[in-house]
Every structure is written in structure tokens, then in C-alpha cells.
């Protein structure tokens, strides 16, 4: 009976150990559909676009973001619920087999439920970050630290297991299952120092920013062989491998007037590949490389509209011609984001947005949130993300501006 419970365990572990394609969580940007390349506040510029460190108010001298935390789970096919249903049904049918009261219809139904799990996937991510920023139009800087975990979990069902369950009538117990579950992903921890300067370009404001950073990348290849897995012996280090490299973000912003601002961000300008450990005879390659995002925003004294779009796809697991694990699964993403903010006297903010994926890997997401900022010094901000009852996220943030 434990074999059935373990097929559910491989879904639970990614959520329990830590964790969307954007690469960071920040409450204001997340509530505005994830847009931020042309609309972020300076205290989040190190995450979204370092050039925006040059955009600040007359009273802004220093900002501390401590901390921002967020998580999102995207289970568009209801995999987690169906795995739980299979777990319960496996235990029930196993008891019937042992008591010789099982029917062929029971076994056929269980086999069909197992087969229906094949190739289905869910994604989950979580993150935490902090930043210390000093805005300026001459020399602005920000120091940030963040950790972001991005995991794709999927089921790889052996068709022989389906056949064996169908043929278990008259046996004393259900057969040993060879089907596997895998959780693949990256846990990235980075320390970055952003610098920016504003230039005069034909009377217009042009800003350039760079963020050299050090990244520690832990690749995750967690696999379950239902026949032999023992959760008492699980050791996360066994399924993870870490490497460290330097990387670079480059950003620019241009303010032509009329409340408009255009932004461009190149994240992870240097390309790296990370090989995972071998688990259940398989290893996977994870890619970290340049992703360019363009953004535009329009702002007046009380309202902001913003939109971003990735100009190229973000790769994660190297899929090969047949998809991840030969299952036809792809986890590439190319996101677009739109959002808006209503700001009441810099004391209370309401935000909403929407985001989608041009690669159709992730479902379209509604976002909303609010901020409380008395005296524009103490800021408490919350954001929520919703696809359906199985795909939800939340971001919470505390910051100070002086």
C-alpha cells in the first residue's frame, strides 16, 4: 500500500522543499501582472531593470526591501488531485485483491486511472529576496540577494504497469509498479550589485544600468521508482548538484515625455548549462541564458499602466526532440504582462493585471494586490495570482523608503 502513497509523494516534495518563469517575486510587479521593466519602483530595480534606479521622487534618498517572499503552483490539469484519487483507489483495490473480493471492473478502472496520469505535469516556484538601494541620476546603486526555485513535476507511467494491474485478477496482491515520478528544476541564489546613470539624450532622459552578479545554481533531479522508493531514506542532497558562476544583467530606460517610459532588460547575458545528477538512470541538462524583455509604461500623479513582453523564449530543461524524458513535455516560456496601479495620495495603492505565455506552457493568470504606505515611508504590500482552484500564488513584502 505504501507504493500508492509514494506516487503522491513526488508531487508533495517540490512544494515542501521550496518551489514562475519571471525569475523573481516582488509584490507590486506581481500584482500588476508581472510587468516591471518600465514601471518598477527603484527599490525593485535590481530585480526588474537596473536602469530604473534613476527614477525616484524628490523625497527619496534610500530604500530597503526586507523581505519579499512569494510562491506559485500551476496545476492546470489537476494532477495533484488525480494523484491523490489514485492513491486512495490503489489502497482500496489492494485490500480487495488481498481479500479475494476484487472484480475485473475494479482492476480495469484502477489501470485506466494510472494510465491517465502519463505525461501530465505541474509547475511550482517560490522565492525570497531583499534589496538595499540608493537612487540617483548621477550614480545610483542597489545591492540585492535573492533565491528562486523553479520546479516542473511530471508522471512517467510504464504501460506494463497498466497491463499488469488489468491482469491481476486472481493474484494475492497488486503488482510491483515500475512507473516513475520526477521533479526537475533549478534553485538559483544570487548576489547582485546594480549600478545606473542617467544621460541627456537630445533633451530626453536615457538611463543605462548593469548588474554584475554571482549565481549559485542547484540543479534538481528528484526521481521516484515506486517499487523501491523509501521516504524515510530521502536525502535532498542526493538529488541536487550545485555550481557557481558570474553573470550579468543589462537594462535601459528612455523617457520621451508625456508620462511615457520605455524599458529594455537583458537578463542573464552569459549562457551556462548545468548537468544534474543521475537519478533512476537519467540525467538532465538545464539551461540559463539571455532573455530580453521590452516594456512600456504611462504614469500620471495617481495612475500607472504598464506592459512587458519577452522577446525570446526562456529555456529551462533541455528537452530534446521528444520532449522532457521523451514524454513530449516542454517547459519553455515566453511571457507577456499587462497591469495597472491606482495610487491614492501615496498612502494606498490598488493594483491588477494579467499575464500569459506565448509558448503556452503556463496558463494565463489574473493578478491583483494592494499596498499600504503611510507617509510614504513604511510599505506593506500583498499580491495574489489566480488561474483556477488548483493554480494559485501569493507574494508578501515589507519595505522602507527614506
What's the quick description here?
By secondary structure, the protein is an alpha+beta fold. It contains 6 helices and 16 strands.
Can you offer a commentary on this structure?
The structure is a single chain. The protein is of the alpha+beta class and 402 residues long. It has one domain (2-401): monomeric porin ompg (Porin, Beta Barrel), CATH 2.40.160. The chain is built from 6 helices and 16 strands. The chain has helices at residues 2-17, 27-31, 45-48, 79-98, 104-115, 159-166, and strands at residues 63-74, 121-134, 140-156, 180-201, 204-225, 240-257, 260-267, 272-275, 285-288, 291-299, 303-310, 335-344, 348-357, 365-372, 378-388, 391-401. A 14-stranded antiparallel β-barrel has the order 1-2-3-4-5-6-7-10-11-12-13-14-15-16. The protein has a two-stranded antiparallel sheet with strand order 8-9.
Protein traits:
alpha+beta, 16 strands, two-stranded antiparallel ribbon, disordered N terminus, 402 residues
Ends: how far apart? Answer: 59 Å
What is the arithmetic mean of pLDDT?
89
What would the principal axes of the Cα set say about the shape? elongated
CATH topology grouping: Porin
* Cα gyration radius (Å): 24 Å
Any idea how many domains? 1
CATH superfamily: monomeric porin ompg
**CATH class category:** Mainly Beta
CATH structural architecture: Beta Barrel
Largest sheet: 14 strands, antiparallel, barrel
What layout of secondary structure does this protein have?
Elements: H1 2-17, H2 27-31, H3 45-48, E1 63-74, H4 79-98, H5 104-115, E2 121-134, E3 140-156, H6 159-166, E4 180-201, E5 204-225, E6 240-257, E7 260-267, E8 272-275, E9 285-288, E10 291-299, E11 303-310, E12 335-344, E13 348-357, E14 365-372, E15 378-388, E16 391-401
